Structure formats: C-alpha cells, structure tokens
C-alpha cells in the first residue's frame, strides 16, 4: 500500500529566507508552493515512512488516470512553527 | 536657502510690491508680476503656473485677494500666501474669510526676510508632498483602473461607493459611475438570494475578512452570473463597520464546468445503475474504485462483513473509503476469473459463486487502462438470473437506502 508525504511549511536559514516544505514524517524537503504540494504526481508523492498516511485507493486510481495527490498536511501552517 | 521658486506677486501698492520683489530676488527666487488686480493675478496664475503666490488681500479691481486665492487654489492647485496689514483685532470678519480661502500661509505687513523665507520653505515642502501624493495616487489609481478583477467599496446599507472599470463591466454596466449611481440596493439589484449580503456582512463583522464567498448575482441585463468575493471590513474609530472593500472574480465558467461535470457523472452513474448486472471497477489490489447500484445492493446484503463501508463508498464522488472486493469461488474449484486476470491479464470469464450466500453467476473481467495504455485496474461484471434491471431513478434510491443500512 502506497504512503504519501505530508508537507508543512518551514522557514529556511539561507540568505533567501525562503519558505519551503518539509514532510512531517520522513523529513524530505521541497522548494514548492502550497498549490504544488496539493497537486503532486504519484512519483513525487510517495513517502517511505511507515507512519505516513496510506493513499486511499480512489485517490491513487485518479492519480494514475492523470489526477494528482494532495500532500499538504492538515496543520501545514503551524506544524513546524514554535508555539 | 530654499530651492529657487517662481513666485507670483499680487500687490496693488507699488512700494509694497517693490519690497516683496526685492526680498524674493535677494533669496534667489524668480518673480512673476507684480499684479495689481485680483483678476490679473488669476490670469497670470493660469498662464504662468507659478510655484507659489504672494497675495495682498486688498487689491485694485473688483476681485479682492481672498476671492483671487479661492479661484487660484481651486482651479490651479497653486499654494497661496496671503499678505495683509489687517489683524484679528482690527478686522475679525476679514480674518474669518482668510481662514476659509484655501491659503496655505499668512504674513503680516511689513513682511520681513525671515517670515518670507519661512513661508516659502513651507511652500516648498508642501509642493514636494503634494507631488509625491499625486504620484502615489496616479500609481494606485492606475492599478485600480486597469485591474482585471473587480474591485469595489460598499457601505453597510448596500450601496456601492466606489468601483473599478472591471467590476462595472463584469456586471454589464457601462462604467463605474453608472454602477455606483444605478445600484440603489445591492440586496434587490445584485444578489440573487436576498439574504446573501446580510450573510456576508455577518461574517465580516465576526471575522473581519471573508475569502472565497461565492454568490449568484444579477448583471444589469438580468443575466445571472457566479462571483467569488474576497472582502475586508473597514471600521471607524468607534469600532463600527464604516464600509467594506471587495475584490471580485467572475467564476461563472468554473461553476458551470462543475455543474456539467456533475451532470456527466450523474449520467454515468445512472447508466451503470440501470444495468441489471453487478458492475465494479477495481484497482490491481482488489480495492473497489467504483460500483453500480446493483453491485452495492448485492454486496450490502445482510451478513456481509463490509456492508457499512461498501454503502459509504458507493455514495461518494471522491471516495476515500477503502473497500476490498468480496471473494467468490469458481464453480470448477479452480482460480476465479479475477485471479486469472491478476495473474495473466487479458479478458477472463467463467462461472463463479459469490461469498457469502452462494449465488451462482457468470463473471467477466476486462482490463482497465490509464491514458498511457498501462493496465491499472479491471472492470468486473457479474451476471445472474436474479435481479431485474434498475431504472435510472432507482439507482440513487438504492444507494441512499444502502447507505442508511450501516452495520447490517
């Protein structure tokens, strides 16, 4: 069963001070917009972490028919922000 | 030393005029005039467009300095400094007129070099601020006027205060002025649902900003269109809603596309629901992607372990419920057509018996391909002699009935 990344916003420390996305499970980082994280291809979306959520069969099937997978974590705006 | 200015002097007294001109020249400014009459001062202001005007209040001719100041500030937006020997103590009424004349400054006679220098410095500062303000106004006015999205400002009572061209054209009005004067009540003339604007106001009062507020609105010609509004409330000092600003996008094409998509999906569902056979689309892990009403009715029967989940899945357009295809056994005891398909691919068929219950039927399995030709699933058809054909209208009822039988 395929699992998918759950990306949340994180501010990097480089000189650009860019916002990028980090998977809350496997920690992989992507310089992508929120909209891109909502529309990822099957290959981009797959997460190997055992705790990552499984992709529902219908969503995976739609992705194989040309659709996309939503990989934005529900708490994407606050997950990595200090309280 | 202030930046050299071009200064119009309006003074009917030759000695006073010479004194003012001398002071100005000594400070490095350029003198225009002097004008002895108010009318002449207005004409020179119009023709020469000076940076500032030094205006005596009492001038020769029919127009005094206060009247000339009003004309120059209103028509040409040139800063005027009034000069007079009168004071509040000697002429109270005149001072009242001076205050409302639009003059930027006031100097008492005799004018000293320090007073003149200070007043002209204020004029320079005023001119710079004014130019910056005008530049900023032009820039934002250009963005406002040329925006492709609609922008408006409206009061809580339901009248537009300001609109840009795009918004007026979106609603079919000839221009912003036409829209602002023509719409007396947004409740009656704009929103299709009379309470829609009140809902927007209630949310604005509660949240301050409302995004993606989709409504059906009337154009001027009576056409209905769909718009999505992004609104921000603006409050007065007492915390009362003074007005609100909205950015509007015409989403009619999107909403109509969604409606067409739902209609097409409805036709597809009705069509497969009308088939007497049990039809189900599976992925290669035997997960149910889509099924017709006949299949749902069969599989949601009493005693089926996944009945509730099957019923939920059947009613969903964006299903996220995972349902495995129920098992069946081959009549000859060998692998079922689905087993053979998953092992060998291609078209497979043969007699099977459904579990539990044991209803005999013929099973056909055909490959389902992605746009690139890859097989990503299978369409499984179970044909039995039992059930009759469902009409298109019966399909949704069967799905709803099954969804209500959670946990049977």
Q: Using the CA coordinates, give the radius of gyration of chain B.
A: 41 Å
Total strand count of chain B, please? 16
Kindly, what is the distance between the CA atoms of the first and last residues of chain A, rounded to a whole number of angstroms?
35 Å
Output the helix-strand order of chain B: EHEHEHEHEHEEHHHHEEEHEEHHEHEEEH
CATH superfamily (homologous) name of the largest domain in chain B: Response regulator
| Count of extended strands of chain A | 3
Kindly report how far apart the N and C termini of chain B lie.
Answer: 95 Å
Number of helices, counting only DSSP H or I runs of 4 residues or more of chain A: 3
- Order of strands across the main sheet of chain A: 1-2-3
Counting helices, strands and paired strands, the structural category of chain B is alpha+beta
Structural class of chain A: alpha+beta
The whole-angstrom Rg of chain A is 13 Å
In terms of per-residue confidence, which ranges of chain B show pLDDT below 50 for 5 or more consecutive residues?
387-395, 402-408
Shape summary of chain A:
globular
Report the major sheet of chain B. Answer: 6 strands, antiparallel
CATH class assignment of the largest domain in chain B = Alpha Beta
Count of DSSP-assigned helices of chain B: 14
* Overall average pLDDT of chain A: 87
Task: Describe what is shown at a glance.
Chain A is 20% helix and 14% strand.
Description:
The complex is a heterodimer of chains A (83) and B (408). Chain A has 83 residues and is α+β, with helices and mostly antiparallel strands. Chain A is 20% helix and 14% strand. Chain A is built from three helices and three strands; from the N terminus they run E-E-E-H-H-H. Chain A has helices at 34-38, 42-45, 57-64; strands at 7-11, 19-23, 29-30. A three-stranded antiparallel sheet of chain A has the order 1-2-3, with no helix packed on it. Chain A is globular and about 40 Å long. The termini of chain A are far apart. Chain B has a six-stranded antiparallel sheet with strand order 12-11-16-15-14-13. Classes of the chains: A alpha+beta (83), B alpha+beta (408).
